[in-house]
């Protein structure tokens, strides 16, 4: 079954399966690392938001008689998640671009 599927494919696409290309595809690695960074960034966002929520509850409701509307939170806690999510987006977008570029036939690239 595998021989039938692989033999019907175009030879330029076989290089992804056989590994005989001189330049091994790095796009999958970049997209995987980008996905891992994305998961890590969302996890950091959850931790920071949990901390901010606890701080808001403690500062806004010190006693039930007089709640305050303003709490003293800083937006600097958002920097780690924004930084990590930026790295994730960069890696995955570069990986996607390399994948799309690798799927274009060489004749289409050089004909323009």
TrEMBL record:
One of its GO terms (molecular function) is transmembrane transporter activity. GO terms for cellular component: membrane. Signal peptide: none annotated. It is a multi-pass membrane protein. Its main location: membrane. It comes from Kingdonia uniflora. It is found in: Membrane. It holds the Pfam family PTR2. Belongs to the major facilitator superfamily. Proton-dependent oligopeptide transporter (POT/PTR) (TC 2.A.17) family. PANTHER family: OLIGOPEPTIDE TRANSPORTER-RELATED. Keywords: Membrane, Transmembrane, Transmembrane helix. This is Uncharacterized protein. It comes from the Eukaryota. The keyword Membrane applies. InterPro entries: MFS_trans_sf, POT_fam.
């Amino acid at each position: 079954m595998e021989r039938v599927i692989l033999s019907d494919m175009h030879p330029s696409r076989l290089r992804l399966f056989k590994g005989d290309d001189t330049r091994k595809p790095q796009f999958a690695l970049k997209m995987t690392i980008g996905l891992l960074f994305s998961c890590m960034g969302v996890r950091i966002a959850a931790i920071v938001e949990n901390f901010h929520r606890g701080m808001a509850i403690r500062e806004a409701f010190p006693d039930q008689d007089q709640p305050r509307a303003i709490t003293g939170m800083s937006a600097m806690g958002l920097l780690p998640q924004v930084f990590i999510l930026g790295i994730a987006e960069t890696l995955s977008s570069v990986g996607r671009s390399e994948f799309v570029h690798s799927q274009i036939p060489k004749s289409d690239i050089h004909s323009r």
